[in-house]
Amino acid sequence: MSDDDAKDPAPDADVEPAELPVPMGRRRKRFRLVIFGFLAFQMIVPLTYYVRADPYDERFAWRMFSAVRLHSCRPGATEVADGQERPVDMPKVIHQAWINTMARNREDVIRAFLAKRCEEDGVEEATLTNVCVTPSGTRLAPQIYRRDCASGTEELPEQLILEDE
What is the value of pTM for the model shown? Predict the structure, then answer.
């Protein structure tokens, strides 16, 4: 046995691997809190959409796989100007992406659209009606959203459509 063999341990001898430096007390706690906060945020944001009053608002929520998402709705708008009701040519006054969002009965978007229509000269009342059909072909009661331009009062549908009965 040579001197070199005596100095070097055998290839399969138990050798402890070099340890990585461990963060110190406060630093470790802060790191854990940041990770925990991030994970909690990722869970809480989607959960808030389940307790909201608007079942059609499915952003960030797992319920986007629900049957509500499969409803096919067609929005149509009218307005009263100078005492006469007239249809609104929606593609001429608003981008198709917003029309698609209104077709999903997104109340906040519909209310903003009606408020914008009330800003037009002579418009006394603005109405948006969504006619929806379920995936099985059942036609649902129209969802009618109305805004009186003079007072700003809004009439919203009494009961939102949730599922095919």
Answer: 0.62
